[in-house]
Design a protein that fits this description.
The chain is built from one helix and no strands. It is about 100% helix and about 0% strand. The chain is rod-shaped, with a radius of gyration of 57 Å. It is mostly helical.
């Protein structure tokens, strides 16, 4: 009887165990395939990370070079602005001096014109007086 129970248990359980074993083998194969795929993806990620690091380093180097060039251009521009400002100040001072000279000359002309007008007016007054004196003498 024990052997009959053992035999019946074998008949029922053995096919199920064999099915489970086959499914386990199939799952093991699928897990192996997935592991291989994960390994390939990890390699690609590592390569991508390495490329990103290289590009980051290159970009940082270019930014540093650009900053150096910008600093040099900034210094050059400041020097140019300073020299231009100095030149313009010098020109302004020279023009102011020249304008002052012209104003002095114009003031002299004005004074001369005013004196001439006074002279002309006085001459007319003298001429009028001479006429009156001549008229009185007749």
């Amino acid at each position: 009887m024990i052997s009959w129970i053992a035999e019946a248990t074998k008949r029922v359980l053995l096919p199920e165990l064999q099915k489970m074993s086959a499914q386990l083998a199939e799952l093991s194969q699928r897990v192996g395939d997935l592991n291989d795929h994960v390994v390939r993806l990890d390699q690609r990620i590592d390569q991508t990370n390495q490329r990103v690091d290289e590009l980051r380093s290159d970009l940082i180097g270019r930014i540093d070079q650009t900053n150096v060039r910008m600093d040099a251009l900034r210094r050059e521009l400041l020097e140019l602005i300073t020299s231009t400002r100095a030149e313009l100040t010098h020109r302004q001072d020279a023009l102011s001096a020249r304008i002052d000279e012209i104003v002095l000359v114009l003031n002299k002309f004005h004074d001369a014109l005013v004196r001439r007008e006074d002279y002309e007016r006085l001459r007319e007054q003298v001429h009028e007086l001479e006429k009156k004196v001549a008229a009185l003498m007749r």
